[in-house]
Design goal:
The complex is a heterodimer of chains A (about 575) and B (about 325). Chain A is of the alpha/beta class. In chain A, the strands form four sheets. Chain A has an eight-stranded mixed β-sheet with strand order 6-7-8-3-9-10-12-11, with helices on both faces. In chain A, strands 18-19-20-15-21-22 form a six-stranded mixed β-sheet, sandwiched between helices. In chain A, strands 2-1-4-5 form a four-stranded antiparallel β-sheet, with helices on one face. Chain B has about 325 residues and is mostly helical. Chain B is built from 14 helices and no strands. The chains are: A alpha/beta (about 575), B mainly alpha (about 325). Chains A and B meet through α3, α4 and α6 of A and α10 and α11 of B.
């Protein structure tokens, strides 16, 4: 045990300053015609590890290899490491640098270690290449110390790679990188393919390893980025599209791509289902590279590449400044006569997000919805849609904002049949010809799990059950493909199996088209599965607002806690079987 | 454990081959006595002479008795008497063996060495000028049968340019000794050796190159480069170590074909080795001689293959522990 080396004493990089160790300017890498990195600017300061995240193929590994001068493409730009341009160094100078000053921990894939050499010898080689002057005995001791420090079992030192587990191989790879105590450590997917327990121990080891030196962590595992890095850069098609403090960036991503990455990452604490990013990487030359997959793109996004800008702590490359707030309510107050129904209600709903409005009956939920729709006049406050104050609701407003009312029987004109009722918004907006409208009606009816045959299209509300009428109301709201849907208890009249289908359809629309949902409900269990953020409203005031996962796990307001307890009591999982 | 298993496998193979060695010549068409005396046998052969010869070569006994006698003699290192040479087979073989060993051994070592070296250099510079020119040249050479190559070299260097002798292993009756004898031997060796090397190199080169090209793409190469290893070290210590595994197998199996190749090449150059001897013995239906030579060759192939197998376990730890 006394052989254990303390990283802080023996292996910390010698000079720790706040000066950037590494400055990457305008780095471009091409493989033949294909451009992998399209101009990267990054800075790295000691003791402030940087995570580089992004989908596979975004150029993460190429970035890491370029810093070692190991990228095989045509490289241009500048990589200044301690004031030396790595791209201009001759090969023999580069070889002196590699492993000694800049080391890379590779992913423990098949054959990351040479299959015919003993692990110990491979670690020793990394030292020998740079320290040939050391006597053999000291060298052996040196290597042993490193192997102990990466906690590789002693009986595996003389083993061959194929005899080791993935975790042990990863330790050996870390030892290879650490043996020369480099100033800059590049970790390439250090925990991919590992089981969670091994990942946890490797992360602990890596935390220790990167202490006191500069580090770049290349990963697609957001939790690894969160645990190891201070800064995070999001790479998309060879460009940095968002950069900021890891905690802030991963909790409140601003770029729609980053948000998509986080939504597709299975987070233990999140109730909402995984949502992906529509489409796939296309490597278009003009305009914003993310534009084809973006749900909020406008004409400029197609024409011009956005520049990475912002304050120093959070940079973003997006013409729209990141995910836009679609709906913003500022200090809304509404009263019926002398009864104050809403007092100072403020909330924000971003594009492609769900805000759940939770509260008991009479708390003012529906009034807020109606106020937004302009059905009730607010006494004070301001409502903004896509950043512009909403005054008189006109056709243009209703083209973008639609509502599903709580009581469908009341909201559907009893004198209209299904075809007329669902097609009415289209007719008002004068969209398409009559036949096109009918097609659209059939499409949304199908989406709302309703028949779209002639008999049903000709039926009237009083022919339908409550559930059917509700679905007709949903179909009507979706007919215009609005940007914002206010759903007031949209599924409370439906049985769970139909409810599930409709919720899934709404969330799919959200993923594919960026539909924003204001989801009004008293059902916390449902709201948890649907929403990104939650606002708890009581007696016309919002008492708590925040990320759904946080509110569910750490409710602060006693009212929220009470609601959660009641919801949990109804859980079938906690039910006890009576003997 | 693994090594004992390998040894046992080889022992079994050896015994089986010995049995075949005995059976195969007996199955050849024609009468050995006829072959021995050629067409004259019809004229010269008297019943007495025939009986004498049959007695002498135990041809009158049953096959089984011949078989038992064969094993018994083998145990004493007695390979029998040659009909044609009128001398103990072992003695004749021992005279021819060194020449074959010299030719085959040096051809083996040189072709392996150069094939591997060229393969490593070529494969690690895939697509470069050196790689492309080597690949073109050796692809052209690849597939030439040994005797064609031998005849070509013989015609070019022996007949047209006349810088190398046409036949034999030494200049007959020159009585040279010491250094000049060595030079004389090398002078005679040059063409048959050259034939072997030119024929053998392409196979080894192509496999080594191919193997190198694949290994250079493996991720451990990146690990080695990231350590700061020089290109030379990456090539030889890392990539070549792995690339040579299939090459080792190829060299082992090639050994067998080199020895059969010796039959043709030695014949072309009238080189007094086992190959030439075997050829003559076949013409004479000299059973004991054929058996002796086949035995010798079998032994050589088996020993080489055994060495390759044992080496393989040293070179590839995955096999050793499998």
């Amino acid at each position: 045990m006394n052989a254990k080396v303390n990283f802080n004493q023996n292996m910390v990089a010698e000079h720790v300053t706040d000066q950037p160790v590494l400055q990457i300017r305008g780095l471009k890498v091409n493989y033949g015609e294909k451009s992998i990195l399209q101009g990267i600017d990054l800075e790295l300061t000691p003791d402030q590890p940087l995570a580089v995240i992004g989908e596979s193929g975004a150029g993460k590994t190429t970035l890491g290899l370029s810093i070692l001068g190991l990228s095989r493409g045509q490289v241009s730009g500048e990589i200044a490491f301690k004031n030396r341009d790595i791209l201009a160094l001759p090969l023999n100078e580069l070889q002196k640098l590699r492993g000694r000053e800049i080391a890379m921990v590779f992913q423990s894939m098949a054959n990351a270690l040479n299959p015919v050499l003993k692990v110990k010898d491979q670690v020793a080689e990394a030292a020998q290449v740079h320290k040939s002057f050391l006597p053999k005995k000291n060298m052996a001791q040196w290597v042993e110390d490193v192997l102990v420090s990466v906690e590789l079992d002693r009986d595996k030192w003389s083993a061959f790679p194929h005899q080791l587990s993935g975790g042990a191989k990863q330790r050996a790879l870390i030892a290879i990188a650490m043996v020369n105590s480099p100033d800059l450590l590049i970790l390439d997917e250090p925990t991919a393919l590992q089981d969670p327990l091994t990942t946890a121990t490797i992360i602990r080891l890596l935390k220790k390893s990167i202490q006191g030196r500069s580090a770049i962590i290349i990963t697609h595992d957001l939790s690894v980025a969160a645990q190891l890095s201070h800064w995070t850069a999001v790479l998309y098609e060879g460009r940095v599209i968002e950069y900021g403090r890891s905690r802030e960036l991963l909790q409140k991503p601003r770029h729609p791509y980053t948000r998509g990455l986080i939504r597709s990452f299975p987070d233990m604490m999140r109730g909402k289902d995984l949502q992906g990013i529509p489409g796939r990487s296309e490597w278009l030359q003009d305009g914003c590279s993310f534009q084809p997959r973006c749900t909020q793109s406008i004409s400029i996004c197609k024409d011009r590449q956005p520049i990475l800008q912002g304050d120093k702590r959070h940079l973003i490359a997006c013409h729209r400044g990141g995910v836009i707030p679609l709906l913003e309510c500022r200090n809304i107050s509404t009263s019926f006569g002398s009864t104050k129904v809403l007092q100072d209600v403020s909330c924000i709903l971003a594009e492609g997000e769900t805000l759940a409005l939770i509260g008991e009956s009479g708390s003012g939920k529906t009034t807020l919805a109606r106020t937004i729709m302009g059905l009730v006049h607010e006494d004070g406050g301001e409502i903004l849609l896509e950043g512009k104050t909403v005054g008189k609701r006109d056709k243009n407003f209703y083209n973008r904002v639609q509502m599903i009312c709580q009581n469908p029987m009341e909201s559907i004109n009893p004198g209209m049949n299904v075809l007329q009722a669902v097609g009415e918004p289209l007719a008002i907006q004068k969209i398409g010809r009559s036949a096109d409208r009918d097609d659209q009606v059939r499409k949304v009816l199908n989406a709302a799990e309703l028949p779209n045959n002639k008999i049903f299209l000709q039926s009237y509300p009083h022919h339908m059950s409550g559930g059917e009428a509700q679905r007709v109301a949903i179909a009507r709201a979706l007919a215009l493909e609005p940007r914002l849907l206010i759903a007031d208890e949209p599924t409370s009249a439906l049985d769970p199996s139909v409810q599930e289908k409709i919720i899934r359809y709404l969330l799919n629309l959200q993923e594919k088209k960026g539909l924003a949902l204001l989801f009004i409900s008293h059902d916390i269990a449902l709201a948890r599965k649907v929403s990104d953020r939650m606002a708890v409203i009581r007696n016309g005031r919002i008492v708590e607002t925040g990320q759904t996962s946080k509110i569910i796990t750490h409710p602060r307001h006693p009212y929220t806690r009470a609601l959660l307890e009641i919801a949990a009591a109804g859980s079938m999982c906690s039910m006890r079987l009576k003997s | 454990m693994g090594k004992i298993k390998i040894l046992l496998t080889y022992l079994t193979a050896f015994l089986l081959i010995l049995t075949l060695c005995f059976i195969l010549p007996k199955m050849m068409a024609g009468d050995p006595l006829m072959a021995l005396y050629g067409d004259e046998a019809l004229v010269v052969m008297t019943p007495q002479l025939q009986a004498e010869l049959i007695e002498r070569f135990a041809l009158n006994k049953t096959l089984f008795e011949q078989f038992v006698a064969f094993w018994g003699a083998l145990a004493h290192g007695d390979l029998g008497e040659s009909y044609a040479y009128n001398a103990p087979v072992a003695e004749v073989i021992v005279k021819a063996l060194p020449w074959t060993l010299l030719l085959v051994g040096s051809a083996f070592i040189i072709s392996a060495l150069f094939g591997i070296l060229l393969g490593i250099e070529s494969g690690s510079r895939r697509g470069g000028r050196l790689d492309r020119s080597l690949l073109t040249c050796l692809m052209l050479l690849n597939g030439f049968p040994d005797f064609v190559m031998g005849i070509l070299l013989l015609l070019l260097f022996g007949v047209l340019l006349a810088i190398f002798p046409l036949a034999g292993a030494v200049t007959p009756y020159s009585g040279e000794t010491g250094f000049s004898l060595v030079i004389d031997i090398l002078h005679h060796l040059a063409l048959p050796l050259g034939t072997f090397i030119l024929v053998r190199i392409p196979g080894i080169y192509l496999l080594t190159r191919n193997s190198m090209v694949m290994q250079m793409e493996e991720s451990y190469i990146m690990t080695a480069r990231a350590k700061g290893c020089s290109e030379c070290k990456v090539r030889y210590h890392h990539s070549a170590r792995n690339s040579l595994l299939p090459v080792l197998t190829l060299i082992g199996t090639q050994m067998a074909s080199i020895i059969t190749g010796a039959l043709f090449v030695e014949r072309v150059f009238s080189y007094p080795g086992l190959g030439n001897l075997l050829y003559e013995s076949l013409l004479n239906r000299d059973y004991p001689m054929i058996q002796g030579i086949l035995l010798m060759m079998t032994l050589m192939v088996l020993v080489i293959n055994l060495l390759v197998d044992l080496l393989y376990t040293r070179f590839d730890p995955r096999v050793a522990h499998a």
